[in-house]
Amino acid sequence: MDERDRHRDFMALLDAHGAAVMTMLRRLARVNRTDAEDAFQETAARVWRNMHEFPRLANPRAWVMTIAYRAFVDVRARQRVHDPLPDAVDARAGLPNDSAERNETADRVQSAIAALDEPVRQVVVLHYMSGLTLAETATAMKLSAGTVKSRLNAALGRLRSVLA
């Protein structure tokens, strides 16, 4: 792949998946936008360095989301911070603003997800909110599919009790 093709493919990946990556990173980081932005920059750098893999990719979205998740984990490991619950703006990110009731429900759901324990919340964000399959989520998090299923089950139980 020559440099021009590499740059074109890189920009196409960012155009196609950048918004979804940033949404996922913001949800993982909760209100700490700096962590999300740092992880996005790290994601872009890692994608650029690994563009030689691009022609062989069966699922470019899963590849980029996996890189983004791992970049986020690395940023968090370097910073060792624990964030508060998301503010109302982050909690409604990406949701239609068609009614007060819908926004209130979205706020409750987002707050309940944000309150989950970190490992459980990360699985929920990757699988349900970022659209990765169970296998892709397991690969991204370096977990077994059974562990992912277990964490999703725990999350759903907790969310049911909180939202009931």
Considering the chains and any ligands shown, give keywords for the structure.
single chain; 164 residues; mainly alpha; Rna Polymerase Sigma Factor, Chain: A; Arc Repressor Mutant, subunit A; 2 domains; 8 helices
Q: Overview of this structure, please?
A:
- With 164 residues, the protein is an all-alpha fold.
- It folds into two domains: 1-82, Rna Polymerase Sigma Factor, Chain: A (Orthogonal Bundle), CATH 1.10.1740; 96-164, Winged helix-like DNA-binding domain superfamily/Winged helix DNA-binding domain (Arc Repressor Mutant, subunit A, Orthogonal Bundle), CATH 1.10.10.
- Helices cover 74% and strands 0% of the residues.
- It is built from eight helices and no strands.
- Helix 1 packs antiparallel against helix 2, helix 3 runs parallel beside helix 7 (134-141) and helix 5 (100-114) packs across helix 8 (145-163).
- The longest helix has 27 residues, at 3-29.
- The protein is globular.
